[in-house]
TrEMBL record:
Residues covered by the HIT domain: 10-123
Lineage: Bacteria, Pseudomonadati, Pseudomonadota, Alphaproteobacteria, Rhodobacterales
Source species, domain of life: Bacteria
Protein name from the UniProt record: HIT domain-containing protein
SUPFAM superfamilies for the chain: HIT-like
Species, as recorded: Jannaschia ovalis
Length: 127
């Protein structure tokens, strides 16, 4: 699979400081910010600072340091936002990849969503 990175995608522009964001957390390898169209009371986007297109691209090609930093930052955000599973509330972590995954921005990103019951993730298949 070719991972064609678009340097003009909205997240690349946010990383360059061309578009403002409501930063939730920032580390050496990761930026997290509030989604501009939140689907729940807590809706944070977590993105790597590197040029990765999808979940599989990131995990296949990022350095160990980038991967660890990304996931530890996401966990810290869950705790800070009060949605970590050990609070009893919980959250959903979603990443979309490619056409069938309905990926809208060609930069790997993780949605952390919580603060209310979220319902089923997908409708049950008929069969």
């Amino acid at each position: 699979m070719a991972y064609d990175y678009d340097d003009d995608n909205i997240f690349a522009r946010i990383l360059r400081g061309e578009i403002p964001n409501a930063t939730v957390a920032e580390t050496e390898h990761t930026l997290a910010f509030a989604d501009i169209t939140p689907q729940a009371p807590v809706h944070v986007l977590v993105i790597p600072k590197g040029r990765y297109v999808t979940y599989d691209d990131f995990h296949a090609n990022a350095s160990d340091a980038e991967i660890v930093d990304f996931h530890r930052t996401a966990a810290a955000i869950c705790a800070e936002q009060g949605i970590a599973a050990d609070t009893g509330a919980g959250f959903r972590a979603i990443t979309n990849a490619g056409r069938d995954g309905v990926q809208e921005v060609p930069h790997f990103h993780l949605h952390l969503i919580g603060g209310r019951p979220l319902g089923r993730m997908l409708a049950r298949a008929e069969g």
